[in-house]
């Protein structure tokens, strides 16, 4: 499959991005940006809360009233990276629809088709409200891997707990409750390149959950 390169315009570097000139500066329409955020998986009215950036960087925050959902992304067009800044959704709706997984799969598909190479995220969690801040578990299940600093912290935690697991994926598959109780927020990344371990792990998770057709 011939994958296009992400749109990138060096001549626009330094220009202020707004909703009115989004396509002119970035080459992407609003609907295309929404697709790269994973929003094709969610129905309902989508309202832009914030859109800002100096090209080649764009930050956009969207609220979807029908599902009490708020999503924010930063696009680094020159580096072919999407940063998943925020994903908040009402818990009953999320559990009923598995909407978080749908959104991420939709985002991965759209980003790969546009030639982006990586998605990064801060996997927040193990705060007082675990039902709300559970990214430290969820992003691991969806195939993200820890960055070097987080992996070092993970190695220290396993040593302190007397465990032998080398990766979060391994621990989640063996003793998820250990991570629920002892885990921490972490920075992670997801390679969109063909046959990456991240893609393989996501496909395994979807297959195990009966959701393989989502990607």
From the structure above, extract its key features:
seven-stranded mixed β-sheet; 215 residues; globular; 38% helix; 7 strands; single chain; alpha+beta; Aminopeptidase; 8 helices
Explain what this protein looks like in three dimensions.
It is a single chain. This protein has 215 residues and is α+β, with helices and mostly antiparallel strands. It has one domain (10-209): Aminopeptidase. The chain has eight helices and seven strands, in the order ααββββααβαβααβα. The longest helix is centred in the middle third of the chain and has 15 residues, at 99-113. The model has no long low-confidence stretch (mean pLDDT 90).
Spatial shape: globular
Radius of gyration: 18 Å
Reading the helices and strands in chain order gives: HHEEEEHHEHEHHEH
Count of structural domains: 1
Largest sheet: 7 strands, mixed
Mean pLDDT: 90
- The oligomerization state is single chain
Q: What's a concise summary of this model?
A:
The protein has 215 residues and is α+β, with helices and mostly antiparallel strands.
